[in-house]
Write a structure and sequence with these properties.
Structural class: alpha/beta
Helix content: 40-55%
Strand order of the largest sheet: 2-1-3-4-5
Shape: globular
Number of helices: 16
Largest sheet: 5 strands, parallel
Order of helices and strands: HHHEHEHEHEHEHHHEHEHEHEHEHH
Number of strands: 10
Length: about 375
């Protein structure tokens, strides 16, 4: 919780609350209302045109971001990649961490930066480097006047600013924007994103039970394959930001190649995601292998995913079956994963008693660490 001295708190910080409802919770609950305005927002058509032109020329297609926005960029890249394939293009979309892209930009093509507030310096540098290399640039974010947006050729503005620093709206907004651009590329049918998000929110009580199952672990592993790895990566970040529990995201197969040696029954919790239908039978088999291995060690395990993928898991695994999103399997996996990971974080944070909105900035050492990492403008 916050200290008695609140002189450090300014309007630049999220609202400082001493208990629920947390701002993060309000942001999570607002997400179904984002689907319609983002689907109708301007920007998708011009960005899709630029992507199509680069794909036709065989030029690089790159999506960049940092933190939650990097995970949003991974989701956007997956959605655009799927749309291009369905439209008959052989081009593939590459997601890169912003600083990597700034240091070694691709030549020409198209580069889209995901940055919610549009002020992340590494993403600014990545877009500058892409522009200098001859790329057409675009951004997804909440501000039309941000540094990233002002320097871009094309801008997609999302409607709601995330008021918690444990970002949720920032992530789902990027996914929904990516879906809007993907529909322009593939001429696909509109998807009821609001219904997908609302359906995931309705699972709050069950997710509270999953959180209780892994509560007490001093480290949490988040594991997935394909789009579910993106979900796992975002969960690991949210748990560390919001619940302040060390967390690591691992690709499903990677978990089984040595990482379990560092796990203990009384110290580790495991979260498995299995909503991406592209993983198929082979992915389901390895999911079962991971769950059985964890059971042998005694690691408390929860799984969130499609019914078919979870059917063969050991009885010791607590699970949440998510309904299929007919005709929009990838988008459905990403959106249900987004809300599920956010609710799981919210529940874990409630169990440990942390203020999830400030990501520990109410404590001086963490404010100073953030200032060192985020506010320096000399690089």
């Amino acid at each position: 919780m916050s200290s008695d001295d609140r002189s450090w708190h300014t309007s630049a910080h999220p609202e400082l609350r001493d208990g629920p409802p947390w701002v993060m919770q309000e942001m999570i609950e607002a997400q179904p209302g984002l689907a319609e305005p983002i689907a109708a927002a301007p920007g998708a058509e011009t960005i899709a045109t630029a992507i199509r032109q680069a794909a036709e020329a065989g030029d690089p297609l790159v999506i960049v971001g940092c933190g939650t926005s990097e995970h949003g960029a991974l989701a956007v890249a997956a959605l655009l990649d799927e749309a291009l394939r369905s439209a008959g293009f052989k081009a593939r979309v590459e997601c890169r961490q912003s600083l990597d892209a700034a240091l070694d930009p691709r030549t020409g093509g198209f580069c889209l930066g995901v940055s919610h507030d549009g002020t992340t310096r590494a993403t600014i540098h990545a877009l500058e480097a892409a522009r200098e290399s001859g790329a057409v640039t675009a951004t997804i974010g909440v501000r039309a006047d941000s540094p990233t947006a002002l320097g871009a050729d094309h801008v997609f503005v999302t409607p709601l600013r995330d008021r918690s620093w444990c970002h949720t709206v920032a992530y789902s907004s990027a996914i929904l924007a990516g879906a809007a651009i993907a529909r322009e590329l593939s001429a696909g049918d509109a998807v009821d994103g609001a219904a997908i998000l609302a359906g995931a929110l309705a699972q709050r009580e069950r997710i509270d039970q999953l959180a209780a199952h892994i509560h007490g672990a001093s480290r949490i592993l988040a594991v997935g394959l394909g789009a579910d790895l993106t979900t796992a990566r975002e969960l690991a970040l949210k748990i560390e930001e919001g619940a302040r529990i060390p967390a690591t995201a691992l690709q499903l197969e990677s978990l089984l190649h040595g990482h379990l040696a560092g796990c203990d029954a009384d110290a580790t919790g495991l979260v498995l995601f299995a909503s991406d239908a592209r993983s198929g039978a082979r992915g389901s088999y390895r999911l079962q292998s991971a769950a059985r291995a964890a059971e042998r060690i005694g690691i408390p395990t929860v799984a969130i995913g499609a019914e078919a993928a979870l059917a063969g898991l050991p009885a010791s695994v607590e699970r949440l079956v998510v309904p299929p999103s007919e005709g929009a399997e990838l988008l459905g996996a990403l959106l249900t994963g987004a809300v599920s990971l956010q609710l799981l974080t919210l529940s874990l944070a409630q169990l440990v008693g942390s203020n999830r909105d400030l990501i520990r900035r109410e404590q001086r050492p963490y404010r100073e660490a953030a200032a060192e990492a985020e506010t320096r403008a000399d690089w």
